[in-house]
Specification:
By secondary structure, this protein is of the alpha/beta class. Helix content is 39%, strand content 18%. The protein contains 28 helices and 36 strands. The strands form ten sheets. The protein has a six-stranded mixed sheet, with no helix packed on it. Strands 3-4-2-5-6 form a five-stranded parallel sheet, with helices on both faces. The chain has a five-stranded mixed sheet with strand order 13-12-9-21-22. The longest helix is centred in the last third of the chain and has 34 residues.
């Protein structure tokens, strides 16, 4: 006999001791799928026959069963299960996880059980035990369905058991093998002409007279339900959708109106309100066979659809993650009606709980049921019921393109039960809903998937350090859509007296197959991310900022750059005006922009570092070495052996004094007094993102030339750059001379980048940028005597592996954060990446690199 089991179910093996349950389980199921009460009795007590350990054994078994069912794994319970009280907690676990319970009953003769137990030394118990189990088993046959067992099979002989074959079948909702592309249609409600018009807009071949539609480009139509009621042509809609489904062009989830129609046609039950009366009147002119066809079609629809490898879920009223690809009455009820409180509002309509507000699943859930003014994403869910029958629109979502397409109705066919507002001003953005971040989203060990680097691990201790920074020092997290990555230096040069040189940066990219690089001047400032909105209304709509702010300038650790709000507001206003004059708002069709910049002078943000570290070292070196040199000069002036012996030390200290003076001069290049906004300079070098776009597909030259258009305002600096052809010797030499000129003037050096924003090598993404710093700037970083022997030789042994790994991971996370934000995913998913960058910054890497 063949048994067909759902891919996900709880299988209860029921039978007396010695009936062959364990042998049956080994023959038909994987070892990991079978949970044996005997085994867990042994786990609890080291003795599988210790009946005193049975309670603990079943506690363990039920706990593991719950974990497996939560993970969507078929689970088999190998226990006697002959008594209702033993089955009850197992059935409850399955019900909690919305999993079907099935039973396989081995009702073999009692004498056979005794014979088998007699051959097993571990089963030497009295015959009354098996006798009682058999009696309980046979008293259970008629009770199983009432207890919640959906299906059972009873086998009464060894021959029947031996002939069993088990086949696994997907759940009715499981269409994960279908990957699209799809067109997903919101609630139609009998609006046939509008549905045909929308399909024609989507390039379907539509024949209105024959009720047929063929999708283009191997696409498939998906319907979220509520095909009928209220509209003028419910029967036409049914004919079209049924024809498409039977032709393999469509799938449909049932809506609550569809379910009401089935009940009315099949059983005559239910009132004829909410448009059902119009549908029945339209069906009255159809044949009885057509009505039966409608019942069969709608009644056989699965409660919801799971598609595209589990990445897409279609359910009429939505569905929380724990119910995806599950079965049972509660799943179907939620999919049809949503989650209600049981109360009625002032319009005598059910009060519904907003499940989408708290949705945290990875799958996109597309639904309808409650009309909204406009379809928009919230927590990876979107409601496509835009109230066509009420005068709104009929909306479809193209998947995976995530493109919304709508058509207007020819008339308002019905009045809604509650006021239906067609007003975009009442809509809230995704991030206006993201008021509270949950600790579980950013703490603990985390595995993060990014487009550029498939998976990376964030250790728990590093995540804790990031939380400390964000919770105590960071700006409003709603602004933090990006943090810039660290940057690796070039490999150590073999040239005398130098630690870094452009040739090594050029060689790295040349080895990786890059043909062109761009060299950008490295400004003497601090890294700053600038987010600017056209106005406070744009900040509210896109970022959920309700305090009246219209932008922010923050550091690479997420802290506000300015302590004085008038400086930040002044800079943002100047940038806003520069964007207006450069026509950015219209050109990019965006009310906001995010820039990666350098804000100068360095002393404006690093004043404490300068005073407590660099200036302190410089002052101490100057004072001590000046005094020591003066004393040694007096000693060396003596014409005796003592004076002669002082000369070597005098020469050494004079050299150290010169290097200390060079150290002071080096950091002073980066400092100037700041008294007003006019004393600052902002050098934007990346236009990172705007509405609907992340500009990582543009070359760095495009970024430089685009941002140079803002430099008509003297507050903004266009970054000088130089293009190098890596396979042309003269071009590389010119790049080196350009670097030498920058550093000779006291500049920090340059950043070498592949011309493409994201460059890929044989093993994945390449370093996004390599800094090549000049001799005098490195004196600040490594100290006055860094290039004196033997210090320089020791520094040349530095390792870059950890730094480069860090730079790549942070770059991938930063790009991922921007892409997620632009896709309007929940803020917690953006912050997963932002927090991870901060977490990685706490890894033990030499900060001087």
């Amino acid at each position: 006999m063949q048994i067909v089991l759902p891919d996900l179910c709880l299988v209860l093996l029921i039978g007396a001791s010695g009936s062959g349950k364990s042998s049956f389980a080994r023959r038909h199921f994987r070892g990991t799928e079978v949970l044996s009460s005997d085994f867990y009795r042994g786990v609890a007590s080291d003795n599988e026959n210790d009946q005193a350990a049975s309670k603990d054994a079943f506690d363990i078994l039920q706990y593991i069963a719950a974990k497996r069912l939560a993970a969507g794994k078929l689970t088999v319970i190998d226990a006697t299960n002959v008594q209702a009280e033993a089955r009850r907690p197992l059935i409850a676990v399955a019900k909690e996880h919305h999993v079907r319970v099935v039973a396989i009953v081995l009702n073999v003769p009692e004498v056979l059980c005794h014979e088998r137990n007699a051959t097993r030394p571990d089963r030497q118990f009295g015959p009354h035990v098996v006798r009682n189990q058999v009696r309980a088993l046979r008293g259970s046959f008629k009770k199983l369905s009432k207890e919640g067992v959906r299906q059972s099979w009873i086998f009464s002989s060894p021959e029947e058991i031996e002939g069993v074959q088990i086949e696994r079948a997907p759940l009715p909702s499981d269409f994960k093998n279908l990957s699209g592309p799809f067109d997903i249609f919101g609630d139609v409600h009998g609006c046939y002409d509008e549905l045909c018009e929308l399909m024609e807009t989507l390039n379907y071949q539509v024949s209105r007279e024959s009720f047929s539609a063929v999708p283009p480009d191997n696409r498939k139509a998906l319907f979220v339900g509520d095909l009928v009621d209220r509209g003028p042509a419910s029967t036409a809609v049914l004919r079209l959708v049924m024809n498409m489904a039977e032709g393999g062009y469509a799938l449909c989830a049932p809506g609550n109106h569809d379910a009401r129609l089935v009940r009315k046609l099949r059983d005559g039950k239910g009132s004829e309100t909410h448009g059902l009366k119009q549908t029945l009147e339209q069906l009255a002119s159809e044949s009885a066979e057509f009505a039966k066809h409608v019942v069969r079609f709608l009644d056989n629809l699965p409660s919801h659809l799971v598609l595209d490898g589990g990445k897409l879920v279609i359910a009429h009223a939505g569905l929380p993650q724990k119910m995806h690809n599950r079965s049972g009455g509660r799943v179907r009820s939620f999919a049809l009606y949503g989650d209600t409180t049981g109360e009625k509002d002032e319009y005598d309509m059910p009060v519904r709980l907003d499940w989408a507000k708290d949705y945290r699943g990875a799958a996109a859930v597309i639904y309808g049921h409650t009309p909204v003014a406009r379809a928009q994403w919230l927590n990876h869910t979107i409601n496509l019921d835009t109230g066509c029958v009420f005068g709104g629109s009929l909306t479809a979502l193209r998947w995976p393109e995530n493109e919304l397409v709508s058509t207007k109705p020819r008339a308002t066919y019905a009045e809604p039960g509650r006021p239906f507002l067609i007003d975009d001003n009442v809509l809230l953005s995704q991030h206006q809903h993201d008021d509270i971040l949950d600790l579980q989203d950013v703490t603990g060990k985390r595995l993060i998937e990014t487009r550029l680097l498939k998976r990376m691990t964030i250790r728990e201790e590093n995540a804790t350090a990031a939380l400390e920074i964000m919770s105590r020092f960071a700006a409003d997290p709603k602004w933090l859509i990006y943090l810039p990555p660290t940057m690796s230096p070039s490999e150590t040069t073999s040239r005398d007296g130098l630690l870094e040189h452009p040739d090594e940066a050029f060689a790295y990219y040349r080895r990786e197959g890059v043909k062109q690089v761009i060299c950008e001047e490295k400004h003497m400032g601090s890294r700053a991310v600038v987010v600017v909105c056209r106005d406070s209304e744009a900040a509210k709509n896109r970022f959920g900022i309700t305090t009246g702010e219209d932008g922010i300038v923050y550091t690479r650790t997420g802290r506000r750059f300015f302590n004085e709000s008038h400086l930040e507001n002044g800079l943002l206003n100047r940038l806003r005006e520069a964007l207006t004059q450069a026509n950015f708002w219209q050109e990019f069709s965006s009310d906001w922009f995010c820039f990666d910049c350098e804000l100068m002078p360095w002393s404006a943000k690093a004043q404490e570092l300068l005073q407590n570290q660099y200036a302190a070292v410089g002052a101490a070196a100057h004072a001590s070495l000046h005094s020591a040199v003066s004393l040694l000069e007096k000693a060396a002036a003596r014409e005796n052996e003592a004076g002669e012996s002082a000369l070597p030390l005098l020469h050494e200290l004079r050299s150290r004094s010169e290097r200390a003076a060079q150290f002071r001069e080096a950091y002073q290049h980066y400092c100037w007094p700041v008294q007003s906004l006019e004393d600052f300079k902002l050098a934007p070098f990346h236009l990172l993102a705007a509405e609907g776009a992340v500009f990582t597909d543009k070359s760095h030259q495009w970024h430089m030339e685009t941002l140079a258009r803002l430099a008509h305002d003297l507050l903004f600096v266009a970054t000088p750059f130089h293009i190098v052809e890596l396979h042309e010797e003269n071009s590389c030499a010119a790049g080196v001379r350009w670097w030498e000129g920058l550093t000779a003037r006291g500049g920090e050096g340059m950043v070498v980048k592949p011309l493409d924003f994201v460059a890929m090598g044989a093993k994945g993404p390449l370093q996004p940028a390599i800094k090549c710093r000049g001799r005098e700037y490195l004196r600040i970083i490594y100290g006055p005597d860094y290039n004196a022997p033997p210090n320089l030789e020791r520094l040349k042994k530095r390792g870059l592996g950890a730094k480069r790994s860090l730079a790549l991971r942070e770059f991938a996370l930063g790009v991922e954060a921007l892409e997620r934000f632009v896709k309007k995913v929940p803020l917690r998913q953006v912050h997963e990446c932002v927090f991870a960058i901060l977490a990685l910054e706490s890894e033990p890497v030499d900060p001087r690199l």
